[in-house]
Structure prediction request, 175 residues.
Amino acid sequence: MPRTKGVLLTAVAVCCAVGLTGCSDDDTPSSVSSAASKAASIAASAAESLGGEASAAASSLASQAASAFESATAEAGRQLDEIKNGVDVKSDVRLGTPGTDGGRSTVDVTVTNTADSTKSFAVQVDYTDTSGNLLDTVVVTVSDVAAGRTGTATARSNRDLSGTVKTEVERAVRY
Prediction:
């Protein structure tokens, strides 16, 4: 592949990666994380297609994709911070055993409403590998849980994850 074509492909991949992180239809934590995951996938595909000829450019793309993912994680946290009258209730959340659904990692999320009125919950679930490296993050909402009751939802990763995947509650807010 001629060097100019490799550089051009790198530039296109970078533009796509940067553009996807900001072109979501909405600004929910899930949509932001999803956009960052798509940007990382595009960057990875572009890096593969460039081969050894542009390894420096591939490293740059991987770094930018990682940065986009970190931004999405920060955005998820920001969205949880903006919930009005939210209460930190991480201890009121339980996760089931991680599984898969069509390649995506899933986990059942159970929340217990210890308040005296109906409440909703936003739960940030992190997916990690066995070494503790962050693979993905999602925010799932469990709406209208009656006082003293439990509610459930299923968290699904934004993309296919391979290997042994662990899950943990990063944050939980009751509102």
Notes: The mean pLDDT is 75. The chain is about 40% helix and 35% strand. Residues 120 and 143 are 4 Å apart (CA to CA). The longest helix spans residues 55-81.
